[in-house]
Amino acid sequence: MRFYFQLSFFLLLPFLGIAQTYPDHFGTGQYVGVSVSSSDEDADNSALNSVNGTGLTPDLVGAARFLAQATMGYNYEQIEYVNQTGIDTWLEEQFETPMVSYAETYRMIYDSALAIIPENDSEKNEYLSYTFYEMLVKQPDFLRHKIAFALSQILVISPTTSNLGGRGFGNSDYYDILYQGAFGNYRDMLYDVTLHASMGVYLSIFQNRKADFALGTYPDENYAREIMQLFTIGLLELNNDGTKKLDANGNFIPTYNIKDVQELSKVFTGFACGATTNGSEPSFTKGKGATDFTVPMTMYDGYHDTGEKKMIDGTILPSGQTGLQDVNNAIDVLFNHPNIAPFISIRLIQQLVKSNPSPAYVSRISDVFNNNGQGVRGDLKAVVKAILIDPEARNCDLIDTPQTGKLLQPIERLTNLFLAFDVSTPSGKIWFRDENKPGKTIEQAFLAAPSVFNFFSPFYAEKEFVQPADMVSPEFQILNATSGIHYLNTIEKAIKNRPFLNRTIANDSGLGLTYNSEDEPILDFTDEIDLLNTQGISALLDRLNLLLCRGQLSAAAKSTIENTITQYQTTLSASNYPPKRAVQDAIYFIMISPNYMVLK
């Protein structure tokens, strides 16, 4: 256990202000907002010429650092591409990259699996996992994948830990709302999420009825509470910069109370089956078993509370409105609440760039959320771009500050590996079921949060070092003695044995899929082996430093790894320690180091 606690301590060091120093800052990926002036030989040494950063491209380190924030993983060629074209060009290209539907991909995988196991046509949760990794590996809209993954941890559903299991078509359709809407408007996303059957079942507004005082029943409050607490405004009133507002007595100000939840819960009554799977007539009483989850829920006004409702801002929804009028009015109230901009901005910054953004950073992004420059509120495309090009994201000077950095999530570490070394399989199928292993051991798997509160809280703060500094360390909530050691084992097996078990043949019962030893996934280490053979271990580590550590591998860590591998090469025979093994060891040592694990 000693090794884990040492690892945990070193992972915390970046939050304490111990970080890699970059003496050459201009042009290392933080050109936004940078201005350099030069003077001539005039007597007053006035600056006649200046460079304002427009059109500049980041160097390779800056490109790698940017891609680590903007994607779920990248290879060396993508680093070179951003270096050559620039961040602005890459972003615009990503915004325009065509989408491939998650739901359509899920259906193709389902059909392909059914050809292998024709006696079992269930919509398995594991096919959702296959869909996620297939899309990541095969589709080039890298930024959209990253934003959808971030949004999935804000607008949470969890098929593997709820009664949504076996609803693969619907759940993949739900993820399409996040994926296809990643650069759309947040208001539209809120509406689509609210009407989706997967969310309706997950947070119990599916068949949610108006109060019946004779029976003593009342509307379910689950969704009303979570759309406020988690999806829009949070628990406490915020300033535009994300700091908490105080009342005249210096106390925090709650955004809502139990009465507000009760009033809002009346809005979300009347939703039920929008379409059936067998073509029969949908109705309010059709259960989820007969419901087509790829079709939005229908509002049945006979089951909707049509009385007057008071919203948190004092707005009165008049009696007699249709259910969808009430829903649209209520979403408008939440969407126009001053809290939503800083609340969502902080969540996205934490997912992409850093756990502890400064109030100034939050304020700049909130301003963009409030107005994209063309009078539009909630433009996610503008918000995402602003987050990634902000000086606090790009300025390498800030790497030395305690507030900079975030722990890479467990899934990100796996996808980093897969994409850095171009994972492939003989069949072309990337059918990786991450739910059990490694999901339950490293405490994260695709769309498998333990609750609507996600895998970890954005407010979690490690108690010994982070909390006293008035900071947070969200991802550290799932780093513990068990998950830390499991990660070491998981990533070593992925590098040295196989990246994952490719489940592309029928199991013994013929009713499910299992590992196919003839369809092993492969990581491509060709370039790294060639570099080791021609230029040696130091050159290899320089490449891996850029590819995995974003140029942040410390001199001490590099020296330790180099000396260790050199010792192996010296003491072991070439047959016992071939170049491929040396490359694998180098990757493994780097991927368990704090320089890799903490994105700065």
How are the elements arranged and paired?
Elements lengths: L1 H11 L23 E4 L7 E5 L8 H11 L5 H10 L1 H10 L5 H15 L8 H14 L3 H10 L16 H13 L5 H10 L1 H6 L19 H8 L28 H10 L3 E2 L25 E2 L9 E2 L5 E2 L5 H13 L4 H13 L6 H12 L9 H10 L1 H4 L11 E2 L2 H11 L18 H4 L38 H16 L8 E2 L6 E2 L11 H10 L1 H13 L5 H17 L7 H13 L2 H4 E2 L1
Description:
- The structure is a single chain.
- This protein has 600 residues and is mostly helical.
- Helices cover 45% and strands 4% of the residues.
- A hairpin with a 7-residue loop joins strand 1 (36-39) and strand 2.
- Helix 18 runs parallel beside helix 20 (481-496) and helix 21 packs antiparallel against helix 22.
What is the structure about, briefly put?
The protein has about 600 residues and is mostly helical. The chain is about 45% helix and about 5% strand. A hairpin with a 7-residue loop joins strand 1 and strand 2.
User: How much helicity do the residues have?
Assistant: 40-55%
Quaternary organization: single chain
Mean pLDDT: 91
The assigned structural class equals mainly alpha
Radius of gyration: 26 Å
Q: Please give the largest β-sheet.
A: 2 strands, antiparallel
Bin the strand percentage. under 5%
Helix segment tally:
25
Shape designation: globular
Using DSSP, what is the number of strands? 10
Looking across the biggest beta sheet, what order are the strands in?
Answer: 1-2
